Amino acid sequence: MNSPLRVLVLWFPDWPLRAALGAPPHPPTALIQANTVVACTASAREHGVRTGQRRRIAQGHLASLRVLPHDADRDERAFLPVLNLIEQHAPGVTLLRPGLAVLRARGIARYHGGEAEAAEALADILATAGFPEVRIGVADGPFTAEIAARGLAPCTVVPPGGAREFLSPYPVQVLRDEQITGLLVRLGVRTLGEFAALTPLDVRDRFGEHGARLHALAGGADSRPLTPRPPDPELARSIEFESPLGGTDQVAFAVRQTADAVMLALGDASLVCTEVRIDLTDDDGGVFSRSWLHPTCFDASDLVDRVRWQLEALAAESAKEPVDEARAFGGIVAVRILPAAVDDAAHHQPGLFGSGTDERLHHAVSRVQTMLGHQGVVTAAVSGGRWLADRQVLTPWGERTVPPRDPASPWPGSLPDPLPAEVFLPPRPIGVLGADEDAISIDERGTLSQPPAQIDGAAVQAWAGPWPVHERRWTTGGGKRGHRLQIVDDRDRAWLVFHTGERWWAEGRYR
């Protein structure tokens, strides 16, 4: 893991309430989302109201509690002027969430003569601007700095290398993972120091990669990269056509100068673009938007390629729709290219001896994608789901991967780790026979007609199950249902099979 950056975190307590009600003090008030308290005033906390409570419980503590709906967009709009104010005195600020911002400490600390002096200077500036409640923490990495900012002191500086000692007495709940922290508490691990004292290999084996990440945070090893804040909208460039253009190559050729103009604007600001949003407007006034990511940074030809790919994808989607429901895809009358995330150009300068491995890899993959088409090169991600096929998401290279189902959500009936190394798409039919070579069946109670003795022509050495899986049982027909088994044959192959109807299917195979 890389050495953590020294960062400075600014925390504005109860920001959603500040955005909704203005400067404190406030009467007892709670903001509600999905019938749950997401923020409450200090006057409400004095009566027992807490974040995370159900609305009726909060009102039970205080009958006169004022309840307002929470608006996340309002929080962001209200925090933008604060970010601009910080940016004027400390360039490079990054928004973590409304009310919480982070920036690298090195530059501003050198300017003010030290980290504590820089934090005090920023606190004075914000207090003069009407934000005296700000709390500032300086530490190794955003996680430790945020914990420091949430202390009682206006400014808290954790010395370099002191993150582990500083975090040690804090409860594990500050990691904000109810599932893992709940299990840790039941195991008797109640503080970050006790969690950090566990062997990393044991933590990884028990909790997986996510648990290992939390274990690193508990020990003060926070190397999370800072995500640049959205750039100035003035960097965007657009072009309008006198007559609609219907051909992909026509539009791509027409936007070349626009792409060059975007790169010139970024160059004048000493920035590079790492994420771009492209808006296509057709002759009926419809706007088709899509965001594109880049592993390093875009150049003009990359932007033109993304416009072409977006048009091809749009045409393909229109062709898939039924004729009686399809919306006629007209010609394009305008294209807008908006840099959605930028970074300092100095971070992307080529090294003394040429470009790095990642950049060469990206250029090679991009060339292959240009030859094979937008869908020719894909990256894989894990999605939520009970069936293995549902958990695989393939996204074209360069696009943001957004799983259609949250993998962190509970999925009762899903397969626990370790997962099969090979997944059959679609599942392939397979024979699971008993000792008398008759097909095995499973009744509604999940009872096998006889133990499995053969699978795919091999003898069964061991087996486990069955486990029922029943999805969408409320739909017409009862949804997809079946029973899973894990079977090991005498050829040292481990199978994941399921039985549905009267047939057996191989869902995956372990290696």
TrEMBL record:
> Briefly, what is this protein's role?
Poorly processive, error-prone DNA polymerase involved in untargeted mutagenesis. Copies undamaged DNA at stalled replication forks, which arise in vivo from mismatched or misaligned primer ends. These misaligned primers can be extended by PolIV. Exhibits no 3'-5' exonuclease (proofreading) activity. May be involved in translesional synthesis, in conjunction with the beta clamp from PolIII.
Gene3D superfamilies of this UniProt entry? 3.30.70.270, 3.40.1170.60
Can you name this protein?
DNA polymerase Y family protein
Short name of one Pfam family for this protein? IMS
UmuC domain location is: 28-149
Q: Keywords for this entry?
A: DNA damage
Q: Does the keyword DNA damage apply?
A: yes
Task: State the superkingdom.
Answer: Bacteria
Record family assignment:
Belongs to the DNA polymerase type-Y family.
